[in-house]
Amino acid sequence: MTIKDNHKPRILIVDDEPPVLNLLKDLLCESYNCRTAGSAESALALMKEETFNLVISDINLGGISGIDMIPQLSAAAPDTVVMMISGNQSIDCAIEALRLGAFDYIKKPFDLEHVGFAVRRALEHQSLVSAKRRYEAQLEKLVKRRTEQLNHLSYHDAVTDLPNRILFEDRLSQAITQGTRTKKTVVLFISFDRLKEVCDMLGYSAQISILKEIAGRLKNCVPESATIARFEGYEFGLLLTQTGVKKSMEITHKIFEALKSPFVIENHEIFVTANIGISVAPEDGQDSQTLLKNAGAALTRAKQQTTANSREFYAPDMNVKAMKRLALEKSLRRAFERDEFRVFYQPKIDINDNRIIGMEALVRWQHPELGFIAPDDFIPLAEETGLIVPLGEWILRTACTQTKAWQDEGFNLNVAVNFSAYQFEQQNLTETINRIIMETGINPESLNLELTESSIMRDAESAVKILGELKKTGIKISIDDFGTGYSSLT
To answer: Under the phi-then-psi rule, with left for phi > 0, alpha for psi from -120 to 50, and beta for the rest, what region is 441?
Structure first.
């Protein structure tokens, strides 16, 4: 079966002697797609228009010699193999041709069978060289692509593809140097509420979906010149350049508006709120670290507000309070180890006969330097640090132990203990309470757990299950702040 010309290896034969040119063409044209040229100049011109697997050229050509043509052929077509033919019997010509890049060298007069063998060997070599070059090119592209991907990942968040903190700080540093008195650089530090609890409940795929949706909504709220970055967890940074304070306030309003519609994730409607801390250069700092730190201080103040979707601009006193809070957190961790907490009992009195019928257990922190610290000042901090769980268990145990002791002395009393939302969400809550009841010996009916409505409604389905389990123990449940968070509680 004859191979189609477009599938045959292509050979260019170059010789200024027509008999030799025709002889080689007749010899090779049956198996290969052959073209001829009578000079090096013609061959080089043809190479610009067509590609060849092999060039067979005489050394002694008029004009540009075959030897001088080799480097030009290699530059024009690196994958093309060159084979030289010459009637010069000197070995020096052969050595020079091979040194310049020729693959093989055949002397005239030549044996036709030998020429056929040499051509086949040269084409095999060309195939290997071409395959090797393609592999190297593919490898180079792959390395380049992987390098670009790694560079991108170094400066972007893998989930949202937003810039990460490193790239954000770099752009912030550049923006600070370009800011003016009227066109300022503004940093917004954004933290989204309740997302961790929701994502812990719905799983990792829900977390990815929510983060991507947040990134999309933020992009719709800012100009193209702004930089949105994901820092870590559910915290984002927003950099506004060459702008003003009024514009930044308009953008925060857009963000809050964008969050009003629910996030629909896996058939769940999730409502998200955010807190925003804002710092402005150069008033609040003249370097990126200071601006970010001050925006963080403003964010902390925003989180302390009772209303959802709060924003705060940085004020100098915030860092003082932040340092005080940091010192208090450090002391709080040691307080539990040093037994600095005290439980006081506020009596409940029957106004008909002024008889004490029960009490509420109230915890206070007896700080060695600051004296007694009220719960409002350290309970939120205990919740943020996770200390509320062991602290709450200690309060419950202490209250039950003391109540049982008074009951043994003949006083018919019950005790109420406050439980925070973080305690209520512990998976082993019922087991912990039952264990404390058994260890202290208190009658379960003498124990009253006080929960806020909002703590129960954080996860209503789970709350129903836990309340059912607690009811079976015999203890009483009281709902505090009823109606402040929801219009009704079924």
So the answer is: left
CA-CA distances (angstroms) from residue 273 to 192, 236, 250, 397?
A: 6, 13, 17, 36
Buried/exposed 310-343: b ≥16 CB within 10 Å, e otherwise: bbbbbeeebeeebeebeebeebbeebeeeebbeb
CATH class, domain 165-314, is alpha beta
Positive or negative torsion for Cα 83, 85, 86, 87: positive
5-134 and 165-314: identical CATH topology? no
Q: Which residues are CB-neighbours of 201 under 8 A, at least 6 positions away?
A: 459
As its CATH architecture, domain 326-480 has Alpha-Beta Barrel (3.20)
Q: Which amino acid is at 305?
A: Q
Mean pLDDT of 438-464: 79
* C-alpha of 58 from chain center: 63
| Angle subtended at Cα 346 by Cα 345 and Cα 350, rounded to the nearest 5 degrees | 125
Q: In this structure, what are the phi and psi dihedrals at residue 13, rounded to the nearest 5 degrees?
A: -105, 125
All residues at 6 or more sequence positions from 309 whose CB lies less than 8 Å from its CB, including other chains: 256, 259, 273, 274, 275
| Each residue's pLDDT tens digit, 367-409 | 888 888 888 888 888 887 788 888 889 999 999 999 999 999 9
The answer to whether the predicted template modeling score (pTM) of the entire model surpasses 0.85 is no
Q: Which of 140, 143, 161 is nearest to 152 (CA)?
A: 161
What would the pLDDT profile of 403-430 be if each residue is shown by its tens digit? 999 999 988 889 999 888 778 777 788 8
CA distance 187 to 281: 8
Fold classification of 5-134 is: Rossmann fold (3.40.50)
At residue 332's C-alpha, the angle toward residues 329 and 334, to 5°, is: 120
- Residue with structure tokens 């896996």? 266
Q: Are strands 371-373 and 355-367 parallel, antiparallel or unpaired?
A: antiparallel
With beta carbons less than 8 A apart as the criterion, state whether 229 and 164 touch.
yes
